[in-house]
Amino acid sequence: MRSILLATATVLALSTSAMAASDNDAYILQVGASNEAAQTQAYGSGSHAGALQFGRGNKADMTQSGQGRHTGHVVQAGEKNNATMNQWGGGDHEALTLQFGAGNASRLTQNSGDKHDALIVQGGKDNLSVAKQDGGAGNAVSAFQFGTRNNANQEQKGSHNDALILQVGEDNTVGAFKTSGSRNWWDLKEGAGQIQDGSNLTATVMQVGKGNTASQSQTGAWHEASIVQAGRGNTGTQTQSGTALGNEASILQVGFKNDATQTQAGSGNTASAVQAGAGNTVTQTQEATAASSVATAVQVGRGNVARQTQR
Fold this sequence. Notes:
With 311 residues, this protein is mostly beta strands. Mean pLDDT is 85; it is low at 1-21 and 177-191. The longest helix has 18 residues, at 2-19. It is flat and about 55 Å long. It has one helix spanning 2-19; strands at residues 25-33, 36-41, 48-56, 59-65, 71-79, 82-88, 94-102, 105-111, 117-125, 128-137, 140-148, 151-159, 162-170, 173-174, 194-199, 202-210, 213-221, 224-232, 235-241, 248-256, 259-265, 270-278, 281-287, 294-302, 305-310. It has one helix and 25 strands.
């Protein structure tokens, strides 16, 4: 209950600060079961929308479009909650989703424009987070998940964008999403994770716990991909493809039975993997005109295996 009150206070504080520069303001508060909230703001400049739902089987849909700086906040506490947020056009938008409970799902989309910020925070179990930023520059997307069996996915296009995922708990996954069951409508490719296409993009995954899996895929040039995992049975996979140039991929794993796989295409790329523990495996492959590329593997412990291929 305390976390719910803190989340509510946070959203209200953000809403109050946004009102002074807002053309339109819309707020919904629902308490109970099987609630539905739908908010649409079109052609405004600096509009704000907020939805707070407490109970079970809640659904919130929010759409903001037009020029100017829009802010949208959704808070849900309970079980089997769904939140969908779409922001179109303009620039410098802010989107925030907070979900606490079990079986929560959040989908957030920001289309075109620059300097957008998107944040999804989920606490509980069986949480799903999907965020897309389609085009633009200087955008940032973050997902924080605390609990068990969490799944986070992010997709960005453009340049100079940043993506961050932090997961704490057990059986966490970045990627390996399956388009089946009740979540078909999430319009996400199977096996997704962090996906970036463009130039000068940064992707970061941090996982603490056991049974963690992280997948990163970048297409283009001058990217940075990082995975940090602490625990047991961790798996990190990084792929940098296309006409890749000057990309950097790094994986740090601390624990037991860890597996790191890095694949890069192009030239002038750098791949580094550091593992501390036992039963660790590193596989590094730099393909296609792998000129001026560097691969480094550091393993501390016992029963470790490292494989490197440059071709």
